[in-house]
Amino acid sequence: MNSSDLAEQSIVLQVVIGFLYPFMLLLGFYVILNGHYTPGGGFQGGSVLATLLVARYVVSPREDINSEELHRYQRIFLALILVAPAVVLFPGFLHSYPRIRPLYLTVMDLLIGVQVGFGVGVAVLRFAFFEGTGKTWRL
């Protein structure tokens, strides 16, 4: 396979993934936001959102995404996932105000979905660019 074949494949991939990109984004948030009513939720929707980073890497395998920053955002969302139940569940807000349960579940699905999306994205970028190059990662 010569370089012109690779360039043609790259153009086809760019067009197809460029067309599908907004639909993948919409599907990811749809699965996240309807997760407490239907099968799905944060993890499944986050995995769909992570395909955006994977698709971007497939189309253009350049190291221009700051994976350290993505990893920082992932840790922030993980902290929010741990703090939100402590603020809402432990004081008994859901027991006292059962009407906020759908809002709480939606917020938790959204937090989990974004955290999973960042987490899988960081893992893909780490394996794609940094494995074996001596870069260190910390939690």
Automatic annotation (TrEMBL):
Main localization (coarse): membrane
UniProt GO cellular component terms: plasma membrane
Membrane-traversing stretches: 12-31, 76-97, 103-129
Matches recorded under InterPro entries: CPA3_antiporter_subunitB, MnhB
Coiled-coil segments: none
Residue stretches making up the Na+/H+ antiporter MnhB subunit-related protein domain: 12-124
Entry's localization field: Cell membrane
UniProt topology in membrane: Multi-pass membrane protein
Keywords: Cell membrane, Membrane, Transmembrane, Transmembrane helix
Pfam families named in the record: MnhB
The family this protein is said to belong to: Belongs to the CPA3 antiporters (TC 2.A.63) subunit B family.
Protein name: Na+/H+ antiporter MnhB subunit-related protein domain-containing protein
Species annotation: Alkalispirochaeta sphaeroplastigenens
